[in-house]
Amino acid sequence: MHAIVISKFGDPSVLELKHDLAVPTPSPGQVLVEIKAVGVNPLDADIRAGSKDFPVNLPHTPGFDGAGVVVDAPSSTRFKNGDRVYLAGALTGTYASHALAQENQVHPLPNNVTFSQGAGVFAAYSTAYRALVQKAKARPGQTVLVHGASGGVGIAAVQIAVALGLQVIGTASTKEGRDLVTQQGAHQLFNHRDSDYIGRVKLVTKDGAGVDIVIEVLADVNLVKDLDVIRVGGTVVVVGSRGEVDKLAPGLLMMKDATVIGFALHRSTPDEVAEQRAFIGAGLTNGSLRPIVAKEFALVDAPKAHEEILHGAHAGKIVLLP
Fold first, then answer.
1. 289 φ, ψ to 5°?
2. Alpha-carbon distance values, 24 to 32, 144, 189 (Å)
3. pTM metric for this prediction
4. What angle do CA 125, 131, 132 make, to 5 degrees?
5. What averages of pLDDT result for each successive group of 10 residues across the chain (322 residues)?
6. Angle of the 175-183 helix axis to the 152-163 helix axis, nearest 10
7. How far apart are CA 177 and CA 179, in angstroms?
8. Distances (CA, A) of 87 to 263, 270, 294
9. CA distance 259 to 253
10. Contact yes or no for 150/168 (Cβ under 8 A)
């Protein structure tokens, strides 16, 4: 088989394609999947750079999002060879032609969902569902502000919020991104590069009181603004950050009687995971959840995909094709 292998931590150039690697052999309770598409996530880049929060042993094949076909499931009663599946994590990295997973990490991929779309299911939709429903306790009729709404998590959050009956306000920096988010059902869109966008968001909320929920993907930049736009008693769920927050006034948090919730997908309980998988599976099948693929790269171009995920102006999911 072939796979991307990291032998040392560093910039995207450390992502090297290796050939003629041994194909893993599944043990009872495991499933071997031939990978057709790989989802690229910001966390992959953090791990590649040597994140202390997510330590891995070297050499390391990255990736935990993917979709493909079962090729060996020795003890499974759920899967047989040829089944289309998506992965919610893996024992071996998904930046490869084959990946080994525990059976409970493997889930059916409906026929109406392509492999490239399936590669964008796990991290984005699990994060969005847990943030909105399991953390913020979203209810129909509430208003949610989704930052970075044209990204993988953002699109998932918009689609889930619309399906649940929320009023959805999104932010995106490009017209292409805002048009895409509008197509997913968002009710209002703003450019987060405009200096006055927070004031304009408040104006479109009921009585100008602000939003009930904020899904925050870049807390180091936006958290202070979130506490301005949140209504009294509202909730900010921090699903992403790339630094520290300056000039955060705790008094504003107190006066708003607001809640700021930290988030880590891998902290999901087994019951939460089962709920996520059930909701996502139903949404994929009935078409209310529709992963959007922004760009596809060959596996050998994984370094370009990492540059894109960190610095590109894409709308949707970045995917590798083994």
1. -110, 125
2. 7, 44, 46
3. 0.94
4. 90
5. 98 98 96 98 95 93 98 95 97 98 97 98 97 98 97 96 98 94 97 93 94 95 93 96 83 91 95 97 97 97 95 88 96
6. 30
7. 5
8. 21, 16, 20
9. 8
10. no
pLDDT in tens, 203-225: 999 999 999 999 999 989 999 99
Number of neighbouring beta carbons within 10 Å of residue 267: 9
Cβ proximity of 120 and 294 under 8 Å:
no
Domains of the chain, earliest start first = 3-121+291-321 (3.90.180.10), 124-266 (3.40.50.720)
- Paired tokens of 151: 């990204």
Q: Provide the residue type at 83 as one letter.
A: D
Cα(100)–Cα(91) distance, rounded to whole angstroms?
A: 5
Q: Of 167, 123, 168, which is closest to residue 309 (Cα–Cα)?
A: 123
Q: Which residue in the block uniquely carries the two structure tokens 């913020």? A: 136
Peptide bond before 59: cis, by omega within 30 degrees of 0? yes
DSSP per-residue string spanning 169-220: EEE-SSHHHHHHHHHTT-SEEE-TTSTTHHHHHHHTSGGG--EEEEEES-HH
Which pLDDT tens digit goes with each residue over 60-91? Answer: 999 999 999 999 999 999 999 999 999 999 99
Measuring CA to CA, which residue among 185, 171, 175 is closest to residue 217?
171
CA distance 114 to 80: 19
| Residue from 106, 139, 159, 76 nearest 277 by CA | 106
Distance of alpha carbon 157 from alpha carbon 237, whole angstroms: 12
Q: What is the DSSP string of 208-269?
A: G--EEEEEES-HHHHHHHHHHHEEEEEEEEE---SSPPPS--HHHHHHTT-EEEE--GGG--
